Amino acid sequence: MSNQISVGDASPGCQKVDPILVADNVSRQFGGLTAVDVAHVEIPRGKITALIGPNGAGKTTLFNLLTGFDKPTTGTWTFEGKNLAGVASYKVARLGMIRTFQLTKSLSMLSVIENMRLGAQKQAGERFLAALIRPLWRAAENRITEQAEELLKRFKLDAKRDDFAASLSGGQRKLLEMARALMAEPKLVMLDEPMAGVNPALTQSLLDHIKDLKSNGTTVLFVEHDMHMVRHISDWVIVMAEGRIVAEGPPAQVMKDQAVIDAYLGAHADIDLGTVSIKIAKDDN
Amino acid sequence: MDWSLVFGNAAAELISPTTAAYALAAIGLAVHFGYTGLLNFGQAAFMAIGAYGFAVSVLNFGLSFWQAIAVSMILSVLFALILGIPTLRLRSDYLAIVTIAAAEILRYVVSTTSLKDLTGGSSGLSGFATEFYAINPFPTGNYLFWPFDVTEKELWVRVFGWSIVALATILVLLMMRSPWGRVVKGIREDEDAVRSLGKNVYAYKMQSLILGGALGTLAGIVFVLPRAVQPGNYVTGLTFFIWTIMLLGGAATVFGPIVGSMIFWVLLSLTEGVLQGLVNMGVITFLSTDQIGPVRFILIGLGLMALVVFRPQGIFGNKKELQFNV
Amino acid sequence: MSQLLITATKKFAVALGLFTFLFGLLVPASAFAVEGEPVPDSNVFSIGGIIKDGDVVLEGIEISVLGADGFEAVGTTGADGRWSVPVPGKGEYQVTLRVETLPTGASLRDPDRSQKTVKIDVVNTVNVLFPLNDTTTPAVKPGDKPATAETNVFLGRLIAGVNLGILLAMAAIGLSLIYGTTALNNFAHGEMVTLGALLAFTFNKILGIDLLLSALLTTILVAASGWFQDAAIWRPLRKRRVGLTQMMIVSIGLSLVVRYIFQIIYGGDTKVLSQGEIWDVFGVPTQAVNVISAGVGVVILLLVAAFLTKTRLGKATRAVADNASLAAATGIDVERIIRIVWVIAGALTGISGVMLGLFLQASWDMGFSILLLMFAAVTLGGLGTAFGATVGALVIGIFVEMSTLVIPTDLKFAGALVVMILVLLIRPQGILGKAQRIG
Ligand SMILES: Nc1ncnc2c1ncn2[C@@H]1O[C@H](COP(=O)(O)OP(=O)(O)O)[C@@H](O)[C@H]1O
Ligand SMILES: [Mg+2]
C-alpha cells in the first residue's frame, strides 16, 4: 500500500519522505536486559506519529535516550540534521525537541501559571544578572503570561491559574505538563502517555489541540495505549515490542498487522484492540 | 542574681552583630536549600572563608578594608566552584556529605600548625579590624537606650552588619521574584522537569551555590568584626545552627532567617542566663555552671528535631511552599 | 488588607506561642526566684584558671588571651598553678594554652582543645580549664612509640592503618545497612560509637568488670539502643511519611542531643581505656588489645558477610536494600527487617566503639569526630553495600594513618576527606548506586 509519508512501502525502519528525527542502532541495556534495540527509525516531519507497544516495550526508555535523559549503550541520532548523540538534555530541548514524562513532573509548589511561564524559552530574566533588572524582562514576561493564559484556557485550566500545581488532580497535572511543554513552542513535541488519567470529557478537546499543533507545523510523537485515539488522530504508527520496532505504517494498516496483534495480545488475538481505551479512561482520579 | 541583666542581655541579642551574621548566613542557606533544594551542609566553610579571607588579606597582605572584602568574595566564588563542579551533578544526599567534608577540610587546613604564619594555626588571628573602626562615622560616646545601649564602636559594627542584612534581603527578594527565581524553585521541585524545558540546571545550581555562599562569606566577615578569628568557631556545629535558624524562620522565606536568628540568640542567651542564675542561687543543684553550655546544645538539638518534624515550613513559611522532597 | 493583617497576626501569634512554650520550660523555676544576689559591683573583668598535671600544679605555663579589635594579653601560671588576665570588658575572648610552654611529657588530654572561646557577660570572672594528660597513665597507640632505629615507621603506620580500617569497617557497615534499608543518612551514627566506648569505659574502668565481659555487655546494650531509637524515633517518622531530608536533619538534632548528654555525664575530657601488654607485630610495638581487636574484627566482618549472603534473613535484608517495595511485594516484612538491621547495626557499631575506644581512647565526641570518616568509607565503597563499606573503611583507615608520613598529622583527616571528594569527581558512578529511573 502506498502513502505520502514513507518512501516506498511501510515496513519497520522504513525511510520517510521528510524525516525530522532519524535514529540508527540505538540500544540500551540495563544489566542483562535489553530495553531498547532500534536498528533504524525515522519520524516524519509535520505529522502526528503514535508510538505504541505493550508495557515494558521500551517506549519510555527510547524517549529518554533520544532526549538526552539517559545514555545509550550504542547509537546515533539526528534532529533536523543535527547530531544529537551525547548532547545534554537541556540543549536537546533548546533545539526544539520537548518531551513530557509518563510519571507527571508538575512542579508542585509552584503555581499553575508559574509552571507555564517556566516553559517559555528566551526569557532574559532567567539569566543571573539580568534577573535583577526588571525592565530587561518585564515585556517578555507579559507576553509569556498572555501566551500561558491562552493555553490554560485551551486546556481548561484557567480557573486554576494561581493555585499550586500540587492541588491539581492527576489528569489535570498531565494537561499542565503538556501545556507547559507547548509554551516552549517546540518543533517536535514528544508526549509520553498524555491521555493516561485525563478526564474522558477533556480527551476530545485535547485531540483537537494536538491536531491544531499539526496544522501549525509542529511534529508530534506520542506514546499511547488508547487505540481509538491512535486511530483517530495519528498519521503514522510505530509499534515497539521488547525493545525493537516490529511494525510501522498508517494506523488502519498497522491495526491489522499480525505482528502488532501478537505483540499486544499474545494468544488472545480475538480481543478487539479498542477495549483498552475503556480501562484507561476509568483510571482518571 | 540580677534578672534584669539576664533579660537585658537576651534582648540585646536582638540587634547584636552575631545575630546579624547568623541571619545573613541563614539567608544564604535559604537560597541554597529553601529555594533551590541544595543540601549544603558546609555553610560554616563559607563563613570561614569570609573570616580568614578578610583577616589574612588585612594582616598578611596589608589590603584595605574594602579590598579585603573583595578578596573574600572572590575566594568565596572560587570555593563554590570547586565545591559545585564535582557535586552538583550528584544525587542530593551526596552533596550534603561532600559539603560537610569540604567544610571540615577547610577547617583542618586553617588550623594546621604548618600554616601558622598565615592563619595563626589553632590560635587564630586578631587585630584586623583597625581600619573598620577607623572609618567609624559615629563620634565617641554612648548610644541607644537600655538594654540596647552601646558604645560608638558597637554601634558601628551593628549598623554595618544589619545594613548588609538589609541589602542581602533586598537582593534575594528581587532574585526570587524574577524568572531566575522561578527556575531555581522549579529545580527544587523537580530538576528533570526543568531540564526538559531547556534550562541548564547545573548552571543554575552553581549560580545559587555561589549566591548563597557569598552571603555566607559576608556573614563570616560581619561575624569576626567584633571578635578574633578562631578556627574552632567553624566546626560542623556552626552549620547546624545556621540550619536550625533557617528552619526556625522558614527555609523558603527571606525574612524567616532574620527572625529565626533573633529568636535563636535571644533564647540561647536567656537559657544561659537563667540557668546560670539558678545554679548560682542553688535552685538547680544537679548541674554545675560548666554543664550549662551542653544543656544549651541539647535544647538546640531537641528544637531542631521538633521543628523539622512538626513545623518543617518554619514559623513564617507557607506550609505549601516548602516540602522536603529531596 | 485586613486579610493580610490577619495572616500577619496569626504568624506573630504562632511565633509568640513557640517563644512562650520554649520559655515556659524555663520560667516556672525562675518565677520563684524573687530576690537575686546583688550585682557584682565592680567593673573589673578577668579570665583565669589553674593548670595541673594530675595533682601537681605547673608553674610558668603561658596562656594568651585575644579579644576584639586587637586586645592581646598573656598570663603565666604562678607557683600555685594559677593564672589570671584582666580584660577590658564584656565580650568574647579567645584563650589559648601555649602548648610549647608545657614541661616535657605533659600534654593536653585533647590536643585539639588548646584553645577555647570565653564569653564574658553575666559573670565578670571566668575560669578556663585546660585538662592535661595524667602522665602516670600514658596511653600508647600503635606507631606512637618514638621511632627507634629498628622500628619501621612505614610498617608501623600501615599496621595502624589496617587496624583503624578494620575497626572503622564495622561501624561503617552499620551505617551502610541502615542507609541501604531505610535510605537514611544517619548523622547520629557516631554517637553509637561513642556510646560503645563510654559504656566499655564505665564497665571496665569504673565498675572494674573484665574487659571481655564489658565488651559483651556493651555490645548488647548498644544493639538495644539501636532497636530503641528505631522504635522511638525512626519508625514513627516513617509512619508519618516524613521525608528523607527531614529525617536526616532529625538525626543531626539527635546527634547534638546525645553528644551533649554524654558530655554532661562523662565530662569533656578523654577517658583512657587502653591497657595491658605491648606485643611485637613485625617489629612494630603494638598494644595487645588492638591486635586482638583487629583479629576479632576480621572474624566479625566474615560473619557479617556470611550472614548477608548465606542466611534467609540476610538475603531478605539485601532484598530490602535493593528495592523495598519489590521486597514487600514478595512477602518480606520490611519493617521487621529494618528493625533487625537496626539491632545488627547497633551491635556492630557498639563493638566497633569498644575497639575504637581501646585504639583512640574514649571521649564524649569521639564518634562524631570520625563520623565523616565513616561516611567517606560508605561513599567510597559505593552502592550502600556492606562489602563496599568494608573496602571503603580499609582504604580510609590506611590512608589516614599512612598519609602522616607525608602530610602534617593534624591534616590526616582532611587528607582522607579530600580522597573521598576526588573519588566522587573521577568515579561518580562508583557512588551513585543504581541509576534512577526517569520518566
Ligand atoms: N532505570 C532502569 N533500570 C533497569 N531497568 C529499566 C530501567 N528503566 C527501564 N527499565 C526496563 O526497561 C524495559 C523498558 O521499560 P520502559 O521503557 O519503561 O517501557 P514502556 O515505556 O514501553 O512501558 C522494562 O523492562 C523496564 O523494566
Ligand atoms: Mg512507558
Automatic annotation (TrEMBL), chain A:
State any GO CC term: plasma membrane
Query: Which InterPro entries did the record assign?
Result: AAA+_ATPase, ABC_AA/LPS_Transport, ABC_transporter-like_ATP-bd, ABC_transporter-like_CS, BCA_ABC_TP_C, P-loop_NTPase
Q: Which PROSITE patterns match?
A: ABC_TRANSPORTER_1, ABC_TRANSPORTER_2
UniProt KW keywords: ATP-binding, Nucleotide-binding, Transport
Q: Where is the ABC transporter domain?
A: 21-267
Q: Which Gene3D superfamilies match?
A: P-loop containing nucleotide triphosphate hydrolases
Q: What protein am I looking at?
A: Unannotated protein
Q: Look up and give the organism this protein is from.
A: freshwater metagenome
UniProtKB/TrEMBL annotation, chain B:
Its transmembrane ranges are: 20-38, 45-63, 69-87, 94-110, 155-176, 209-228, 234-255, 262-287, 293-310
**Biological source species:** freshwater metagenome
Under InterPro entries, the record lists: ABC_transp_permease (IPR001851), LivM-like (IPR043428)
Q: Where in the cell is it found?
A: Cell membrane
Recorded GO molecular functions are: branched-chain amino acid transmembrane transporter activity
- Keyword annotations: Cell membrane, Membrane, Transmembrane, Transmembrane helix
**This protein's name:** Unannotated protein
What's any one GO cellular component for it?
Answer: plasma membrane
Pfam name, any one: BPD_transp_2
Its membrane topology is listed as: Multi-pass membrane protein
From TrEMBL, chain C:
Entry's transmembrane regions: 154-179, 186-203, 209-228, 249-268, 288-308, 340-360, 366-399, 411-430
Mitochondrion listed as a keyword: no
User: Which coarse location class describes where this protein primarily resides?
Assistant: membrane
What UniProt keywords apply to this chain's record, in alphabetical order?
Amino-acid transport, Cell membrane, Membrane, Transmembrane, Transmembrane helix, Transport
Q: Name one GO cellular component term.
A: plasma membrane
The record's listing under InterPro entries reads: ABC_transp_permease, BCAA_transport_permease
Q: Which Pfam families match?
A: BPD_transp_2 (PF02653)
Q: List GO molecular-function terms, semicolon-separated.
A: transmembrane transporter activity
Please state where this protein is localized: Cell membrane
Family to which the UniProt record says this protein belongs:
Belongs to the binding-protein-dependent transport system permease family. LivHM subfamily.
Protein name as annotated: Unannotated protein
* Organism phylogeny: unclassified sequences, metagenomes, ecological metagenomes
